[in-house]
Specification:
This protein is an alpha/beta fold. Helices cover 48% and strands 14% of the residues. The longest helix is centred in the C-terminal third of the chain and has 22 residues, at 246-267.
């Protein structure tokens, strides 16, 4: 099971759009996918018109059974939604032991999915720490502008620090340039800069496309809303790249689990 957090502390970089469309794209390739919405704005649920009686707050704080919190959206695609009550979660978690690993604790028995895709809030708070410590991989959407480039450097430093402090092995599997407009010199320059510094990690850009903005109004992924759009083409290509890396990251996750077990045996 691949556990991927889609993360950037900067807002407006198409995190939710990326989560919804890679999850939907993977589900269309017969992969069973669970979306975790860890943002109190609940945008992932809004994009797919998903709602549930029990949600991420109930799972993390109220002790709800995970089966009560999962909403079935279609073949191979499930979600745990969130709403504004999730803002209380960070305040409550501050007083808990191992508060950074509460998500790990709640999802420790989760096994029935090929992918868990997390939509993270635009911050570096406790919920994002939980997401990063549960995840094996991070996908970083980055807008192709100056502020996006600066935010990319900050989130990479944050991941490096978290790995060091918690002896974790979160891997940046993809940097995804978003909101790319080839007509603009600045977009081209920022894309070139990202590629030159992180070339082995950089996916092909997601071009700016009105259909990506329209799709949430219909509660659909771009593949359902307009499968022939540039947005569908770009996200289909990203899904293919993610799947091509499948065996490599499964092997890495298994190696990590073995190392954790060995360290636990030594300490005992």
């Amino acid at each position: 099971m691949r556990k991927i957090c889609v993360i950037n502390q900067k807002g407006g970089v198409a995190k939710t759009t990326t989560v919804v469309n890679i999850a939907s794209g993977l589900s269309r390739q017969d992969k069973k996918v669970l979306i975790l919405d860890l943002d109190a704005q609940g945008n992932s649920g809004t994009c797919l018109h998903a709602a549930s009686t029990k949600d991420m707050f109930d799972l993390l704080i109220e002790g709800a059974d995970i089966r009560e919190c999962i909403t079935h959206l279609g073949k191979n695609l499930d979600m745990i939604t969130s709403k504004e009550t999730l803002t209380k979660a960070e305040l409550i978690l501050v007083g808990e032991q191992n508060r950074e690993k509460m998500l790990c604790k709640k999802l420790k028995d989760l096994k029935d999915y090929d992918y868990v895709i997390m939509d993270c809030p635009p911050s570096l708070g406790l919920l994002n720490q939980n997401a990063m410590l549960y995840a094996d991989e991070a996908i970083i959407p980055v807008s192709t502008d100056i502020l996006g480039y600066e935010a990319l450097k900050k989130i990479i430093r944050a991941i490096t620090t978290l790995n060091h402090v918690f002896d974790h092995g979160l891997i940046i599997s993809k940097i995804v340039p978003t909101l790319y407009d080839q007509r603009l010199t600045l977009c081209r320059e920022i894309l070139d800069k990202i590629r030159s510094e992180y070339y082995e990690l950089v996916a092909e850009p997601i071009r700016i496309n009105s259909k990506l903005k329209e799709a949430p109004r219909s509660g659909k992924s771009i593949f359902s809303y307009d499968p022939f759009s540039r947005g569908a083409e770009d996200y289909k290509r990203l899904v293919q790249v993610i799947m091509q890396d499948e065996q490599r990251f499964i092997d890495l996750a298994q190696t990590k689990q073995k190392m954790v077990k060995i360290r636990a045996e030594i300490s005992n």
